[in-house]
Amino acid sequence: MTSNPSPYDAVVLAGGGARRLDGADKPGVRIGGRTLLDRVLGACADAATTVVVAAPRPTARPVVWAREDPPGGGPVAALDAGLRHTTADRVAVFSADLPFLEAETVRGLVAALDGAGGSGARRLDGVLLVDSGGRDQPLVAVYRASALRRELDALGGLVGLPLRKLTAGLELAHVPDPVAAFDCDTWDDIATARARIREHDHVLDEWISAVKDELGIDLDVDTKALLDLARDAAHGVARPAAPLTTFLVGYAAGRTDGSAEAVAEATRKATALALRWAEEAEGADGKPTDGKPTDSGPAAG
After folding, report:
1. Who's near 60: CB < 8 A, 6+ residues apart?
2. What is the DSSP letter of 152?
3. Separation of alpha carbons 191 and 38, rounded Å
4. What's this model's pTM, rounded to 2 decimal places?
5. Which pLDDT tens digit goes with each residue over 88-114?
6. Residues with Cβ < 8 Å from 160, sequence gap 6 or more?
7. Where do the H-state alpha helices sit in the chain?
8. Bridge partners, 66 (sequence order)
9. Which of 124, 141, 147, 159 gets the highest tally of CB atoms within 10 A of its CB?
10. CB of 37 within 8 A of CB of 101?
């Protein structure tokens, strides 16, 4: 993978009848408090332009809306409609039912396509994920836009065509990733996704992502440092100090420039204060805990 993959646009297909969900509004189904559509939009937030092919609805971030003609004309027609609003050389294409798609996976797909087609190698048209059953997932992929347009032009009539008609003429690389390629087609799939995000290894990251989406925050912070601060405040001061201290850290960072660096600096200061507070409690008899003068308090007279 490259650290700085090429710019890309994203097309998210959010139409369809969701027959196996009894006609429910699948993109609007919530997993971990966020809609499936918003989870996918979060994963491709790096895209220069994001096009959602569906009837407009509220989303966590701004997107361009498009619609196939006629509505419900199938995935190939929908992809064509979305592609018309893109300009980047690379286009990420996703369905709107991928609860575990993450930004790092998307960047990896873009980087894999960047790295293909070097000297002596075949030129790839795209890179797609493969699910747990070994099936290609053409709606979890990054393609060269020129290749998609070439195949769409060759197909002619697009309404009702399956995606395999489009991808059959493409040179593709296949990347197994059963988690990111997991899609929600049934209520059992929804239940599985909801259970997974509440597992111990995932629940905290999922909760933080949900809160950031809800509050409109696009900021990466050192979660471990904040948790350590909360622990130090709870143990060294009092339990209620933990949430209050982390709130004050966020407020202090917001009063500066609100950056990750500002959060880190406020966290450092508050952690040092909590540790000094705890040291004083350990030396409540008035004597320095290490037997030496400290520079954190007034000098002895």
Report:
1. 34, 38, 41, 42, 213, 216
2. H
3. 18
4. 0.78
5. 999 999 999 999 999 999 999 999 998
6. 73, 74, 77
7. 36-43, 75-83, 103-114, 145-155, 163-167, 187-197, 203-215, 223-236, 241-255, 260-282
8. 53
9. 141
10. no
